[in-house]
Automatic annotation (TrEMBL), chains A, B:
Keywords: Aminotransferase, DNA-binding, Pyridoxal phosphate, Transcription, Transcription regulation, Transferase. One of its GO terms (molecular function) is pyridoxal phosphate binding. Coiled coil: none annotated. It comes from Amphritea opalescens. Residues 1-69 form the HTH gntR-type domain. This is PLP-dependent aminotransferase family protein. SUPFAM superfamilies: PLP-dependent transferases, Winged helix' DNA-binding domain. SMART domains: HTH_GNTR. Transmembrane segments: none annotated. InterPro entries: Aminotransferase_I/II_large, HTH_trans_reg/aminotransferase, PyrdxlP-dep_Trfase, PyrdxlP-dep_Trfase_major, PyrdxlP-dep_Trfase_small, Tscrpt_reg_HTH_GntR, WH-like_DNA-bd_sf, WH_DNA-bd_sf. In the C-terminal section; belongs to the class-I pyridoxal-phosphate-dependent aminotransferase family.
Amino acid sequence: MKLYEQVASTVKDRIDLGYYHEGDKLPSVRGLSQEHGVSISTVQEAYGLLMDDGVIESRPKSGYYVLKHQEIPELPATSSPVPEPLVVAQWQKLKHIIEEYHNQVSTKLSLALPDTETATLKPLIRLITELSRTETSRILNYESAVGSAELCHQIARLAVDSGCRLHPDEIIITIGCQEALSCSLRAVTEPGDIVVVDSPSFFGSVQAIKINGVKALEIPTHPETGISLEALEMAFEQWPIRAVLLTPTNNNPLGYSMPDKHKIRLLALLKRYDIPLIEDDIYGDLNYTLPRPRTIKSFDTEGRVILCSSFSKSVAPGLRIGWVAPGRYREHIMMVKYLSSLSTPPLTQMALAEFIAQGYYEKHLRKMRINYQRDRDAVIGWLKRDMPEGTRISYPQGGYLLWVELPNEIDTNELDRRARLESISIAPGTLFSASGKYKNFMRISCVNSANPAIEKAITTLGRLCKEMQAQIPLAEPV
Amino acid sequence: MKLYEQVASTVKDRIDLGYYHEGDKLPSVRGLSQEHGVSISTVQEAYGLLMDDGVIESRPKSGYYVLKHQEIPELPATSSPVPEPLVVAQWQKLKHIIEEYHNQVSTKLSLALPDTETATLKPLIRLITELSRTETSRILNYESAVGSAELCHQIARLAVDSGCRLHPDEIIITIGCQEALSCSLRAVTEPGDIVVVDSPSFFGSVQAIKINGVKALEIPTHPETGISLEALEMAFEQWPIRAVLLTPTNNNPLGYSMPDKHKIRLLALLKRYDIPLIEDDIYGDLNYTLPRPRTIKSFDTEGRVILCSSFSKSVAPGLRIGWVAPGRYREHIMMVKYLSSLSTPPLTQMALAEFIAQGYYEKHLRKMRINYQRDRDAVIGWLKRDMPEGTRISYPQGGYLLWVELPNEIDTNELDRRARLESISIAPGTLFSASGKYKNFMRISCVNSANPAIEKAITTLGRLCKEMQAQIPLAEPV
């Protein structure tokens, strides 16, 4: 890392840790040059880099400021879940969401689907078509149980961006991130165990915990910095925790990214209590700014962290390609994967490996990062305009999901029911908790805000909320 | 069913049940006509049909005889496994087999891979290529969690051939049969439970039992009629059995198909003790003669049978497409499937649905049935010629796997080790038992016997057996 990059990185860290907020004035060029013992031009280069990355702005005759993206609404408060391990409920609700997918709802804000209409995916389609013609023998036969060697190689190469040094042999390809998480959970837990999760937490993880006969202990979680390490340590003291399962970067649904310092402290805690971490990094590559945040895995020297990810959110879910870097649990996770599905289909693995190798993946990501940041800002703007007073909204730095806290009296299960009658779906907050908390929260996707249906849907949701507040009964369907 | 088909079916049943053996003379045309009260020409048509199906032959001036395929060697004896539930071992050995697949072994008799070089699969490749171009939006997005509607429809249609009336909505598409079996097991068992299996038994099933924390109880099994129903009933009396897991048709590895009467009796037993059956029908469509045997599911009126299958053996394993008809366990199995891998990739589902709809599947099967029967006969001939005296060989009526019992003194783990040095692999018998029995057995594939490497490999195996019998030590690699 060059000197000016180091300086830029330090300033960026301070912004991330909250020393400087949006709109705050940054130290003068002279001040920073003295602090770091570097030249004026080095500081100027550092500030230039941060401007390129969209982190800061220069105001003429005044200095440098943390870029104010927009007037953002208040964030949801740190969560306060039930402080004991629970059997996860909510399957019926989730089933409802799954089944809806192929039903009549036209604006599915409930689902975390990436933009698959983008031109940057055309080369992927071309590769699938080509390889289906030229690699017939391979696509008809079993791929290696651990996955295609080329794809493992490309994933190891990409992992460098998150600070990880992985050998291709350390990677196992799975059917999406869900299989990676499911196999990891099965490998490190037994029925009756307790697993720690953040709160709110991704429903696919908490339900996978449930069907393993494992209980979930939810930990208070801050919408910017993530899981409370103090609460986590208390939990480690109090309960026989078997594993921790987190999405520490561009979290679903809350949007937080744990600062590196928290990630390092978490790892130290895990080491002290000898507990493995299942790290879900599925939205990591969709960070709006570069370099993308480091994975906790990247700080791990003991093989304690099981890193799970996929291309379902960054490329396309229909590929069903995920992966796990299982650390010291490789043998067991490989066995579970083999006995769950033998191996992952070869055609899409080969096409994706080529897509990455030929540079299309990075090109695609560049466009998606810009689009999704724009989508976030647009949808937040509409929510501010249309939702009832007191609404709080998460402010993610990557991905395309918003976590919205509505006034107490609004039950989002009822909101969802009313919305569906207008062909709109949301993901009700209760889905994201083992205990069915978050009754007045919802998760919505903001992908493709350029489509007028999205703005219209937000306006409709706002109207429905106000009808609910005014206790206007739902008209019976004619 | 027409009259002559009814008569043919009755004669076929009697042959299947063992009233007439190979080479036996069948009733005269006149005799049969009197017995059934049908015309002479109806019986002639019936015998004509059976000749077309390769079941019987006509000898000039003598009459009709059950076709003698060849002088077949003695079958292995009914198995006598350990009569108590066991934790399944043998994972290390299985891992060895899995890893070998992409290693240097050139003649892999160990693996159950179908012929994927056949011209009858060309339309499938063409469909994959075409659909990848025309259905881009669909292939990049999640398919319904239960699978593509078109494919479910085609599977329901095909199921009629095995006597099943399934509604497309009763079917869930999975990642191969392994995911179908794995999800079914997870849905009906809990750790500590006991599941009944045949013996020998497919290693993918017994290992899936193991990682669920369930114990396997192996039941004595006959190489022609399958699991002993008397022993099964005793087991039901003696142990708290949670489920039965069987491949009752063209069994892997033993090759048996349970006669319909046994299938019906088994179902009655299951009903009496209120136990579900997981029926693996993966080789059912590869029965050499038509109509293919009925599934146990086809006799089930209560939703007690969970029918699992896939296109991995009948079409191509690289598609990774299987399915389950979960009966009364639909809700739970759908949940487990969703939380294991969310959904199955859409492209191959769509292509396979079209492949079946356009009649290519049935055309492909017609060719494969003939080829695999020819392969079976060729490989049995070479085994008879080359293997030590006392060798017994299974005589499957479908599929492409042989179960070979060698003289007691031959340990097939050692045989496999020696064979690998000559670039040949076999599946050692111990893989097929929870307790590591069948030390002097092996399973071999007989696919593609037209390739001279197969005959050569059998000759090599024969030589290695004789060297082992003569206690010639293995030469150390130079």
